[in-house]
Amino acid sequence: MYLTIKETAEFLSVPETYVEKMVQNNQIRAIHDGEQILINKEQFNTHLKQMEKYKELIEEVLNEPIPEDLDIKDED
């Protein structure tokens, strides 16, 4: 499935200018059909999967309880 620059920006939650620069710098594969630039949506699948893994990892770290400090001594 092909997306326009505007649709790609919405899909990735980034500004349109960012997507345009990525296309110009050949960091995103795109084709020009004579009227508009089209970007294949499938090329972002790996990136989105990686982002999901990172989000899960961050969530695990944030939800991990803080261990008690072994250096603290009971003064009672």
TrEMBL record:
InterPro entries listed in its UniProt record: HTH_17, SinI_DNA-bd
Occurrences of domain Helix-turn-helix (ranges): 2-50
Domain of life of the organism encoding this protein: Bacteria
GO molecular function: DNA binding
Coiled-coil region(s): none
NCBIfam families cross-referenced by the UniProt entry: excise
Name of the protein: Helix-turn-helix domain-containing protein
Organism: Bacillus canaveralius
